[in-house]
Amino acid sequence: MQPIRNKSGEINSVLILDKDITNKKKTEKYLTESKERYHNLFENTGTVTMVIEENMTISMVNSQTEILCGYSKNEIENKMKWTDFIHPEDLERIKQYHLARRKIGGEASTEYEFRLIDKKGAVKDIFLKIDMIPHTKKSIVSLVNISELKKTQEGLRTSREEYFNLFNHANDLIQVVNPAGKFLAVNKTGYSGEGL
After folding, report:
1. Could you tell me the CATH number of the domain that includes residue 132?
2. In terms of pTM, does the model score above 0.85?
3. Domain count for the chain
4. Phi, psi for residue 76 in degrees, rounded to 5
5. Does 196 score more than 60 pLDDT?
6. Do residues 143 and 47 touch, judged by C-beta distance below 8 A?
7. What phi and psi, each to the nearest 5 degrees, are found at residue 121?
């Protein structure tokens, strides 16, 4: 309300400005709900999730990050760089991806493996999925600890090597035949070099 005075200084009317703020209130409500949804999704993805700034500073992490890395959110957010967690042998490759991702026309893999070093110095094998957040220089990253999978794969590879070593160096003839009678494998003891 603003009083309007005449030439003699007396108030003869009042100016009332009225503004409809319905749309503003709706927008504020929508933004609040969107922010809550985004935060809820970020926190409950089931994987380690981080937001990485252009200078490699980690600006946001979820609670899964604390479990994987051993650092609290307060120790990480806006204090640590993404590179602080990367094994030295993987560091240069990861830095190149980071820079390429931010260049116009730059090509960088959005999925790859690397080794992470946690707060206690333990090395963990990680599968990463990363992409840029639209209209920013920030990237969002999801990490999955694949250390147990790698151990299992290594165990299977070792078992397979041991099997083939035993198969090929057995003193007795070993033949593997399919149901149709076709030879699939013959160990070195039984291999004559003819007809197989």
Report:
1. 3.30.450.20
2. no
3. 2
4. -95, -55
5. no
6. yes
7. 90, 5
